Amino acid sequence: MTEIVLNAPRARGLFVLTAHPEGCRVLVERQQARARAAFEKPLDAARGKTVLVLGSTTFGYGSSTAIALEQAGFDRIIGVGYETAPVFRGEKLAMSSPGWYITDTLQARAGNHVTYLADAFSAETRDRIVGDLRARGEKIDLLVYSVAAPRRSHLGQEWTSSLLVVGEPLEVLGLDFKSGELKPITVGAADPLQIEHTRRVMGGDDLEMWVSALLYAGLAEEGMKVAALSYIGPDLEPLRRMYWEGALGEAKKHIDATTRALDSRLERAVGGSAFTVMNPAVVTSASVAIPAMLRYISDYLGCAETGRGQYDDPLDVGIHFARTLYGEGEPWREHLDEAGRLRLDQHELEPDLQAAIAELWSNQQPGVPDEVTRAGFERFKRDYARLYGWEVDGVDYEAACTVDPELGPERSVIDLLASDEMRDRP
Ligand SMILES: NC(=O)c1ccc[n+]([C@@H]2O[C@H](COP(=O)([O-])OP(=O)(O)OC[C@H]3O[C@@H](n4cnc5c(N)ncnc54)[C@H](O)[C@@H]3O)[C@@H](O)[C@H]2O)c1
Fold it and tell me: Could you point out which of 167, 178, 323, 358 has its C-alpha 20 to 30 Å from the C-alpha of 366?
């Protein structure tokens, strides 16, 4: 294992290439403490249950949901994420993912956690997990689908998703991450093939295969729930066009259709349910590259910072999710909308907040944005750095730290990417 001082991130363009192990550890432990405080005692309906979280390894929704469910009373957390070991060039750390360090912390007291570092889209991963569940005599009570990927390959076919609009190209003032200024941008229109590719990556195909595999193998526990995380977003026109009415929205509509079909199937097979969960927008690495999304999230954060709305971070949402699903009296049933989707995005869509954001969009010119947007952008930059373990208060970035902790079976980490041909696929 290598100890070095890592006092600044390496970056390529907008993308952070090196995460900070200590920063990630501190943030995971703070999340665990927050979740412990949120659940003074385990929820009766969650006790002893087993969850499979696909896409469990980043500071996005996967790890937060897993942390919240554990503190809510789940007995066993099985995670899957696409993470590879830190890479060195000579003595220098060239690349390291936050997911490697998040997994290191989550698995520190392995206990009831097991994490597969694997391509969730591959049949080999499914077969391996199904085999392991059988061998351990375990069944799944809850499947959380939280994979977000730019590419998917299945049986030799490759698909790439895109963030394009459908119909006419979109002209909009976006926020430029580098300069912090508003700049006119054009979001191109997806052709039918690009829409189909996006649907194949981020739609419901893969989810359907996971649920089928569990049902066929008899590994779906009585009453099993399937929750596919999704986003619908506000009515603000550029956002609607970029997201719900864009190529990604086509994929999300496919997830909706898939969960509706799975709902009837699960109900018949094990008395279970499936639904999409509409989560609120949060700070993620993807938003940096989409200037219109960056502007919207900065406005959202800016409004929340100045007291005109509430921003929920992924752990707030994870806690809300656990309470809604397993609180007394099945509260989730009352949170379903007319299309059968579980809504956890109320704070983001609150009319006063959306009116304030719409006002920020209605009369700004290219150049330096309004002070609310600027305040939100500052918060965005800090939260973005923290996705990689940087800018975490209390962490000494001048102290040496182990940058390549080993993750293996002794920590209940099953690394299917370390050795095999899957590694370069997604
Ligand atoms: N970020 C948002 O603002 C937001 C809002 C609402 C809903 N959502 C939804 O939540 C879900 C998760 O998004 P996120 O923002 O947490 O994403 P994220 O990028 O933070 O996490 C994605 C996870 O998927 C894993 N992953 C990617 N490719 C994989 C593969 N081939 N095999 C195994 N694991 C793989 C990653 O390792 C990671 O653990 C998505 O469906 C997204 O649409 C996100």
Answer: 167
Q: Which residues line ligand 1 (CB under 6 A)?
A: 55-58, 60-62, 80-83, 99, 119-121, 146-149, 229-231, 279, 281-282, 284, 426
pLDDT digits (tens, 9 = 90+) for 261-310: 999 999 999 999 999 999 999 998 877 878 899 999 999 999 999 999 99
Joined tokens for residue 62: 């996967």
CA of 400 to the centre of ligand 1 (A): 31
Residue 115 structural domain: 3-157+193-233+246-281+311-345+394-419
Q: What is the pTM of this model?
A: 0.96
Give pLDDT tens digits for 62-107: 999 999 999 999 999 999 999 999 999 988 999 999 999 999 999 9
CATH classification at residue 7: 3.40.50.720
- Which residue minimizes the CA distance to atom 5 of ligand 1? 281
Asked whether residue 288 is domain-assigned, the answer is no
| 178 belongs to a structural domain | no
Any domain includes 323: yes
